[in-house]
Structure formats: structure tokens, C-alpha cells
Structure prediction request, 369 residues.
Amino acid sequence: MSLLEYATHTVPDVVQKAVPSFYNSDALMKLIKARGNVKRSGGTHVRLKRIKSGHSDVTEINATNMSVPLSKKETFSTMTGDWARYVKPMILPRYDLNRLGRAEEKKAYTKDVAEAAMLSLKNDVCRRFYIGDTPSAAKLGGLGTLNGGRTAAPNGNGTSSGLTNGALEFDIPATQGATGNQYLNEARTHDATNDENNWYNQFAQHGGIGTSFLSTCEQIKLTADSYSEDSEGISIAIVSINDQVAIADEVRSYPGGNATPIMYTTADWDGGNIHKPIVAAAGMRFFSNRWMTAAALGNYAGGAAINEAAYLLNPNYVECWVNAGENFRVGKFFDGMEHGNQDALIGYIFLELQFVLTSLVTQGCTRAV
Prediction:
């Protein structure tokens, strides 16, 4: 079997075997997958049904009032968003292949290239999830993002219909509703009177990690969980690496805690009893993400950095949709010299997906004052 035939027949299997690690290597994506929230569907759009909280007015029946008004409020709305459609090239340069003497070495190299392409695709997608599109990031503007920090004008945190704005805005609910920004084609609204038809995310500023950060996160969690239909509520927080280190210091400095750095013996290391970089506090687990820096998040804050930011998420209301027909589909490899001017064997990974938060009021975020 020639190398071209080998790549065409083998690489699709290599890609499919790499799909589980595509999700499991990121804390949030792993939770989404574990809860069955990776939805494989089809069609021209991502479509979700939203159940609103109004429906109709309740009437108290007493001795003088026996009538029941049957005024019905809008109960459902259909939220839609475009698919994000991507193609990822896999390139096997001839000059690299020709340096490998045996066929087994060339086949191993082909497998390594396929796995590297999947890792690169995962990095691009995860970066988009957390910070949105930036000049230095891969151009994945059609994919939804958590980052709802607002630009000065316009609010350009994406280009996909229904997902033009990031999901979580770093501003109070009343301000979110006043801006008119939409998410999934639903206008952000804040009903402080009847508490109906609310479409906004929870937010409160904290006074800095080491002061009021954990108590602010707990306040946001308690508020968001009061809208949740599940028993878990907000259980995961995503922060920057530096901020997670600072959070660990805040936890250790609490009364009764250990304010000194954690130290381990060789026996601890050999026995696997070493500290994992996860902090559990305020009813949630904190995971760090290398892309979540103030400079990166600040690109969508009208020029101001979003310092010490955290996404506080309920994974039961976070979904990743994949078009079943373009679910890491791999095309046939071909000789680049026959179809162009690249002396390489070339193949493509095709992917259509979308990242959505199905309930904003059950999610939250915070940043420093």
C-alpha cells in the first residue's frame, strides 16, 4: 500500500480516536461531554427552545371574585444560531517524508501529524470559547464564546448569527438589559418587578483576590442557583493561571488554614500524593486556563482590561453542538503537486460545531473593581 493510500485509509481512524481527548483535555469541555451535552444534530441552524417563566397570571379566587382571566403570555421562543464551519489542513511535506527511510517511519509520522492537527484544532476552539477572537487568534469568529466584554463600538465579539455577542457580560443585569445586546437572538432583559422573562447573566464586582473574591463568587452562585432546575448549580469556575495561584493563597490564609506554601517530600511525589492545581471553594471548583489573561479579555472591554476575571458556570446549561455530517470528517489525501504548487500530501479535517449557553440566568462571571 502506498503512503497516499495509507493516509487516506488510516488517518480518519486516527482522528476519530483523538476525538475523546479533544473534549477531555479541557476541564469545561470534559464536563459538557460527561453530562451528555455534546449534541450531534444536523440542519442549517442550531435551534433551541426556550421556556419562559410567565405563561399566564395566577388568580386568587375568593367570595367576590370567581372569574379567571385567560390572558396568555408568550411561553416559548426559538433561539437560533449559525453553525461554525471549519476546515483544518493536514500537511505532509515531501522533504520530511523523504528523510524517513522505512515505510514504518513514514506511517508513524503520518499518524503524528494527524494527532498534532487535532491538538491544534482543540487549542483554537478552546481559546475561542474563553476569550473570543483576537488579532493573534485563529479566525474562528463564527463560534460562540463566553467572553461578553463589550467593545467601544460596535460590539463585535463574533460574527455568527445569533451569537454575535459573547454569552457572559462583565456588567450588572440592569445594564445588560439597557444595552440591547442579544444572545441567541434573544434581547437581554432584566425584570426586577415580576422576575419574569429574564435573559441576562449574573454578575458582581469583587474587591480583589485576597479580599472579597470568594464571597462575591458565592453570592453569584447562590443567586444563579435560585433560577436553576438542577441540584448542582454553578460548580466550575475558569480563571487565569496567576489568579488561581492567588485564589489558593486566599484559601490557605483563611482562619484555620495554612498560610505557608504547600511543600512535599519525595515520598509524597513517588506515592502520587501531590497537590493537584484545583481549588475547591465557595461551592465550586476553580480551574486555570492559560488564555484567560487580563490583556486577552480586555480586548472586548472598550480598551479597559478585565482584571482578575472568572467565569462561574453551571455545566448542565452549557452545550456544544456538532453537525453529525461534519463531525471531524476527514477527506481523502491528495498529492499537492497534482492540484497546486505544494510538494506535499494534503488532507483536511471538516468540522461544524457551535458553543451555546442555554440559560443565561443560571451562569455568572465576576471581575475586579
